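Translate sequence into structure tokens.
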Amino acid sequence: MEKIIVMITIYFLIFNMRYSHQREIIMNIIYSTKSHPNADWIYKRARKLIPNISLGTIYRNLKLLEKDCHIATIFDGSVARFDANMEKHDHLKCKVCGSLTDLSLDYDFKSVVEKKFNFIADEIDMTIIGTCSKHK
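Result follows.
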């Protein structure tokens, strides 16, 4: 937890972001989970620390954090979920519980797509849908 707070403080300094206690709390919530939370999940946790924070404040800060490349937005159907892992990766999604798990595949999909379909892919964003180990 202390490491996360230090990282967030460094982000404010390096990226010349205006400090905001609310933004720090939101970043801390996102950086301390691998669950790819949605805005409501973040809001519920933030309210425990800042009871008067609004859902609008959560959304404004999430948009700013995404714009400044501190978090990524993953569109999961009609729900936006947020990811602090900014490394290139894909996801496994459980069709039973909806959990998203980070996945790093060491496979050159772009070359395969180009060779097989004569198509140059600029970006590949993949979600593999199935059943997680909790629901086998």
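Note: The chain has five helices and five strands.
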